[in-house]
Write a structure and sequence with these properties.
This protein has helices at 6-11, 22-31, 42-53, 58-68, 72-79, 106-110, 113-123, 157-166, 180-185, 190-197, 202-212, 224-232, 253-258, 262-276, 290-306, 328-335, 364-368, 370-376, 378-382, 415-422, 480-494, 500-512, 520-533, 537-541, 544-552, and strands at residues 56-57, 87-88, 98-103, 128-133, 145-147, 150-152, 238-244, 278-285, 313-318, 359-363, 392-399, 405-410, 432-436, 445-446, 470-475. The longest helix is centred in the middle third of the chain and has 17 residues, at 290-306. The strands form 4 sheets. It has a 5-stranded mixed sheet, with helices on both faces. Helix 11 packs antiparallel against helix 12 and helix 21 (480-494) packs antiparallel against helix 22 (500-512). 42% of the residues lie in helices and 13% in strands. The radius of gyration is 24 Å and the shape is globular. It is an alpha/beta fold.
């Protein structure tokens, strides 16, 4: 049983600090029972309180601080950092029992998120709160509303109202995901078993990943084999962190794969752990994916029950609604129970990562490919691709196409080919006008560059990058300046606030972009400061939509 921290007991009653409410303390202890009493569990404690009470009361903050031996301000600053915790101060009214979250990021805005919000605000009764939120990872079903924890794709007032009336507020969990037995019957975990039986396989596996050219598929593109070799050289114990916090607007590939075949990811985790020598692994899942969380919990339980060899410790951690936690060092901070603020580097995570230990951090999809590359061979993977590029890419496509969704296509494919061959062409009455090749941070390109190869390093000369391969298609019925403004509003909302260039820069450029005629010189000056002085990729990439709009669509911003 979790009890109050002894240090806090000794200090209670001294000074002018908040006193602990015994009722609130009992409620906190009951809510978090069964969890270890550790600082790194703080965010999960807050989730327990939010889930049970619909908010986190000020008295809960004080009581939780007492349990952990922290100052109430330390708990408060963490709770208020994340979007999904409703911290209610003394004297404030708690939020209504039900919250409807409406995504207003780019794809949803294109398909009517603003009108949906207005309809919901005017058409729903008492006891319901409507919130505008950042991307919820279902861009192919835009516009999306989330009723409690239940996602409603192509949402309307009627469909949301029907959900509320039916009491459908629980997560959506696909029933047809591949279970452990079916996965093993198809050859699954054979590679993991071979690694358990033969410790000498590690070098050949790394060589195969290097030969295949597998790179980090979360956006950074760092060579996977090289990363594994670097970690092998670090002192033990080493840790593994799987980043399933895909918050980039337009991206939903990790959710797609995990809702169907979670054991393929888990096998990649086991192989990496065995090759590198890792005995503890953390899987960090964004809070917008409660269905994925449920599937992974079940899949891990199946693995523990069915796998006959020793397993590393597998810990699931739940995010709390912060895009910045997709950045690797911010994610590490979040797992440690802190605000998700990026770290200054060096040192790098491979040297000093989670809990100060050498840490291998990977995107979900990168590990998802490990088994297939090893079994089918590096030559198979390299044999895919167009225009001199190698491999396959998982493109999350949304916007003005007939078949939005996850499309596995050759690296180096052009957006025109992607639309015609995989997405069923443009929507009727729409003509390709512009596209985001890598989510809202990847910049914007005009239709005249629709034949450029989509892959790592191919778009740099155009001021763009592929990132996580989230492709958002705009038509001649859209305005690029509006899309760029939506992107900067997103960055302004999601900036962690740690560094002034990003925090103030995003706010300032967002205001400037609302002018009828853009002040191009001032916007470029601010963009340069943000790019060169921001701590992490959010502030560094935020200027991309601005610069691309000015460069490729000057008439939309008042230029020639």
């Amino acid at each position: 049983m979790i009890a109050s921290h002894p240090k806090r007991n000794r200090l209670r009653g001294r000074g002018k600090g908040h006193s602990v409410d015994p009722v609130a303390q009992a409620a906190v202890l009951d809510a978090i029972s069964g969890l270890p009493c550790r600082r790194d569990q703080l965010i999960e404690y807050l989730h327990r309180l939010q889930d049970r009470f619909g908010h986190v009361a000020a008295a809960h903050v004080v009581a939780l601080a007492d349990v952990l031996g922290l100052a109430p301000t330390e708990v408060y600053e963490v709770a208020t950092f994340y979007h999904h915790f409703d911290v209610v101060r003394e004297g404030e009214r708690p939020p209504p029992p039900l919250t409807i979250r409406v995504c207003d990021s780019l794809s949803c805005e294109v398909f009517g998120a603003d009108a949906l919000v207005q309809a919901l605000e005017g058409g729903l009764g008492q006891g319901v709160r409507v919130q505008r939120v950042s991307c919820v990872g279902r861009c192919d079903e835009a516009p999306v509303a989330v009723v409690g924890q239940h996602p409603v794709g192509h949402a309307t007032l009627d469909s949301v109202s029907n959900c509320i009336e039916a009491g459908t507020t629980e997560p959506s969990v696909p029933a047809d995901w591949i279970r452990y037995k079916k996965y093993c019957d198809a050859g699954g975990y054979t590679l993991a078993r071979r690694c358990s039986e033969d410790g000498g396989l590690g070098d050949s596996i790394i060589q195969a990943l290097e030969s295949a050219g597998l790179r980090g598929l979360g956006g950074a593109g760092f060579p996977t084999g090289r990363k594994w070799r670097i970690l092998q050289q670090q002192s033990a114990p080493r840790l593994l962190v799987v980043n399933i916090d895909e918050g980039e607007p337009g991206t939903f590939k990790d959710r797609y794969y995990l809702e169907r075949d979670p054991h393929r990811l888990l096998e990649g985790v086991l192989v990496a752990a065995q090759v590198i020598g890792i005995d503890t692994c953390y899987l960090y899942v964004r809070d917008e994916y409660p269905g994925v969380m449920a599937i992974l919990e079940a899949a891990i339980a199946e693995l523990i029950a069915g796998f006959e060899y020793a397993l590393p410790q597998l810990h699931l951690r739940r995010g709390a609604g912060a895009y910045i936690c997709g950045e690797e060092s911010a994610l590490i901070e979040s797992i440690e129970g802190k605000r998700g603020m990026p770290r200054l580097r060096p040192p790098y995570l491979a040297e000093v990562g989670l809990f100060g230990r050498p840490t291998l951090e990977h995107n979900c999809e990168t590990l998802y490919w490990v088994r297939e590359i090893i079994e089918r061979g590096a030559d198979w993977f390299c044999g895919e691709g167009r225009r001199g590029r190698q491999g396959l890419r998982s493109f999350s496509v949304s916007g003005r196409v007939n078949k939005p969704g996850l499309h596995l296509a050759p690296a180096g494919i052009s957006v025109r080919e992607l639309i015609d061959e995989y997405c069923g062409g443009m929507l009727e009455g729409h003509r390709l006008y512009a596209y985001f090749p890598g989510g809202v941070s990847g910049g914007i390109l005009p239709a005249r560059l629709a034949d450029e190869p989509l892959d790592f390093d191919t778009l740099a000369e155009h001021g763009c990058f592929i990132g996580s391969a989230a492709v958002i298609i705009l038509s001649d019925q859209d305005r690029v300046r509006s899309a760029a403004l939506n992107a900067l509003r997103f960055f302004s909302r999601e900036s962690c606030g740690q560094c002034t260039p990003c925090r103030v820069g995003c706010q300032r450029v967002t205001r400037l972009m609302q002018a009828e005629r853009w002040n191009v010189e001032l916007l470029e000056e601010l963009a340069t400061v943000m790019e060169e002085a921001s701590i992490c990729g959010l502030g560094q990439a935020a200027p991309n939509p601005i610069r691309c709009t000015i460069r490729y669509f000057p008439r939309e911003v008042g230029g020639k």
